[in-house]
Amino acid sequence: MPRARRHVLLRVANVNPDSVNTHTDRVLYSAIGVFIVLYFVYATVGGAAFIDASSNYQHPWYRWLIGPLVAAGVVAYDRAVVGRVAISYEKLDSTDPQEFLRKPTIGLYLGRLGLAVLFAVIITEPLMLARYQGEIDSRLNEVHNQQLSRIDTTGVIATWTARLQQLKKETTADDAAVRDLTNRAAQKRHDARLLYQQAVADSEGAGVSRSAGCPRGGYCHELVQRSRGLDDQAEVLDRQAGRLLDTQRAARDARTAEQVQLAQQIGEQRQTNSEKVRADAGFGARTAAMWYLMTSDFWGVGIFYLGITLLLVALDCAAVGLKFVSRGNAYERNEARIARRREHEAALLHEREIHDARTYGAAMARVVAEGIEAAAHDEAVARESAARASAVLRTSVAVPEEVRKMAAHGGRHYRPLRNELLGPAADDAEQAARNGRHRRSLHPPVVINEDVRVLPGSPPGRHYNGE
């Protein structure tokens, strides 16, 4: 196989071509890439068949858009399983190949195999239903007829049918009552005709009396009277039948309208039921019909169904299965070496960075502590030097008498001028020892001339003239 094509198959299998160094691994992962490509085609067709079955086999055009998406999802899962190497990051400094990979667990294998079988079954089932579409349609037609018959004998149609039969019985009873009267009238007319014929025959001499004519009070006359009475009775019965029919007319009209309405409702309900039952031919109904065909005719349908299903499931699980049986091969050990070395380097670098950070922190703390100590020492030296200089200056300066007089009163100074010019008294010395250095102990000394005096706290260039 050309190198470029082999690298494409390796990329399809989601493996690193640089780590595939042996011929066995190249053949293995190239075969996995071929299975993944084949499965993409199979999953595309299966996903389109699933959408078609879900739409009650209306053959929507978008099924060929959703089919590749389903196939891409399943292939992405297979590639993730194939490209994943269970690397062990424990004992990174060990060079034992037995410690490169983590030990697999039964849950990991069952989980991956279960997901692969689940994808395979979901995608395979619509294809198998399309394969046995003719047998399934025949079974569904039989099931639908049974459902329609059961619906006609139960439910609202049965109630309406019973009511319709009751109305028909009532109409039949009314018709029977009218028919009885009309039949009785017809029978009386028939009897009247027979009697009249006998009377005519008797009047001609061919009757029972054997005498011609029909005198009053004779047998012929009696027959004629009986015939006329029967005609009158028949007429009465006809009038009774007419009156009975008039009284039944309102009830008959109501029953006729109700019968028409019930017949219309029954027809509409049967039409609706037929549409609903015929529409029950989707994925679930076809799966149930397929299961019935498998159980009722296992050697004719079931064995081939199972065989084809297992073949397609094997195609789906081929890539994952090859991954499972090839665990611990040279490719996975190479990937484990690279990943463990990289992790080991990162761990060492991280440890070094933490050590450097700790060292830097300790050094900074030491520098800060030494700086604080030096600053405190310098401040103490400055205080002591200022105190000594102030004492020396106070003892070495000759204060005139007028200055002593000016400092004799307290005035309104911030601090008594006497203390700064003449030095603290004995009790002031104890107070100064308790309070530390004075507020103005570091001011320049007082320089007194005969004409110009520089007072403490005066800025340079400004002088006080006694005049």
From TrEMBL:
Source organism, top-level taxon: Bacteria
Transmembrane stretches, start-end: 27-51, 63-86, 106-129, 298-322
UniProt KW keywords: Membrane, Transmembrane, Transmembrane helix
Keyword Metal-binding: no
InterPro entries, per the entry: DUF4407
Protein name: DUF4407 domain-containing protein
Organism: Paractinoplanes rishiriensis
